[in-house]
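#onboarding

Welcome to the new folks! Below is a worked example of what a typical request in this channel looks like: someone posts a single protein sequence, and someone else replies with the predicted structure as tokens. Don't worry about understanding the tokens yet, we'll cover that in week two.

Example request:
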Amino acid sequence: MPFSPLRGFRDYVPPDGGARSELFRRLRAVARRAGFQELETPSVESMDLFKVKSGEEIASQTWAFQDKGGRDVALVSETTPSLARVFVARAKAEPLPVKWFTYSRLWRYEEPQAGRTREFSQFNLDILGVAGIEAEVDLLQTASLMMDEAGAEGLYAFRLNDRLLAEGVGRRFGAQDMLGYFRALDRYRKVAGGEFSATLEAAGVSTEGIEFLSAHLGQSDGGVDAAKVGAVLDELKALGLGPEAEEGIARLRQLFEALRAVGIADRVLFDPTVVRGLAYYTGTVFEAFDRGGDLRSLFGGGRYDRLVELFGGPPTPAVGLAIGDQTLELLLRANDRWPEGEPALDTYVVSTGPDLLSVVLEIVSRLRREGVSADFDPMRRTISRQLREASRRRARRALIVGPKELARGQIVERDLTTGEQREIPRDLHGPAGPA
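Example response:
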């Protein structure tokens, strides 16, 4: 009987497998250019590791099972707990700041939809040990460069907020259920006005607060750009939100000013609805969206200054973000910017007869050892079929091995773009002559 991938899983056949490899090669290159070092952690961890961070509710989305030793384990659904585990084990000796990136395959038992699969790849950036906005600036600047070099330049915007500010507004208007209040903010653009108001009311927000939030969020529905954010923060500060919220406001002012200085203010917005769903965020939070507003978030993250302590480590400020592969792929494909796939082959070596195989293999081997991508036809097809295959592989040139040329110590080099050809030495060195 025919087999197919399980629901929520995908095959990536050529050229898509190569395109994904190229995409993550670009992300890795930018991360290293920005001074991040690669961390690799296991695909299976103790289930308790995830419960420390997210509590018992994590079980509903985790591929959990008992191993043969009777231990409760899980396929990794996010890399932050593993990162915290590694850092705690090394905290006494690890020089600060720590700048790590991970590229991991993850698993979550969620309902599949556009931009969401049950198995996916994720690229994480994390900075530990920096309490100031310098970490957020470094992180967002690096993420911006990643998005640009991935092919998404001009297609995305970062939406920023601060959890302390969001909590202060909630308390100012009487919110008793802070997580319920956060859920209402998070779903503001996804629900009708009546449902939004009812959710706020259920969280304990006063009538005054519902009216203020509805009007305020309506004015900033598309996000507030960097040039106007100061006036909006002034309006929020005038509410008298308390010292913690004012700390969040001050941090946002500094952050927007610094992002302007590094040249990415044109893609940064203040968005009071961004609160992030995870309870461990302690300060700045941010998400990236396509400017068209048609897709799920491209990435999300924020400051999590107390997480390392949850895992038994010392007090350590930290900030991080995670870029998922599925939504980014949708964005790039929709705008004809998906990578081409496997890189073009440089050289295809063509044999004019089966008795020349040893010479062909010798040339291919030499080229590969010299760092040149090269291949040949192991199926011993006709010359025309071999040349068609060279074109299909987008080879730059064909090296044609024939008995007459070999007798003179030569082979034929054909430029597959122009069709021009010439004879070159069999050892690929020395003067060339006309074909």
